[in-house]
Design brief:
The protein is mostly beta strands. It is built from one helix and eleven strands, in the order E-E-E-E-E-E-E-E-E-H-E-E. The longest helix is centred in the last third of the chain and has 4 residues, at about 110. It starts with a strand and ends with a strand.
Length: about 130
């Protein structure tokens, strides 16, 4: 069941930039950590990044460190992912996720390899294509 509204995907050339945004219903402090997953064709879903709602802790997958930046806006109840120096291997459908449990931290346990996401809200997914 899709409950988050995402925007910002599209087609970009290698080396280009895109920013994804996701609006969360209500107040972000009502939720646990927020973040992004992605899934490329024929590949497993991969956690990309997260940010805490009660602190500013962040996590980034090794593949995007130094290129992606996650941020949150408490006034707009949103989370954004700024992506720069995009590579063809970043091509995927990107999904916003917000944990319903207000005490779920931003931690590799919930977003890293093999993470199991439970009790969470998901976005509908937005396509990011990096191609010349």
């Amino acid at each position: 069941q899709v409950q988050l509204v995402e925007s910002g995907g599209g087609l970009v050339q290698p080396g280009g930039s895109l920013t994804l945004s996701c609006v969360v219903p209500g107040f972000i402090l009502d939720y646990g950590s927020m973040g992004w997953f992605r899934q490329a064709p024929g590949k497993e879903r991969e956690g990309v990044s997260c940010i805490g709602t009660r602190d500013d802790s962040t996590y980034y997958a090794d593949s995007v460190k130094g290129r992606f930046t996650i941020s949150k806006d408490s006034v707009k109840s949103s989370v954004s992912l700024e992506m720069s120096n995009l590579k063809p291997e970043d091509t995927a459908v990107y999904y916003c996720v917000v944990h319903r449990d207000a005490w779920t931290p931003c931690h590799p346990e919930y977003y890293g390899p093999g993470a199991v996401v439970e009790n969470a809200l998901w976005g509908q997914g937005t396509q990011v294509t990096v191609s010349s």
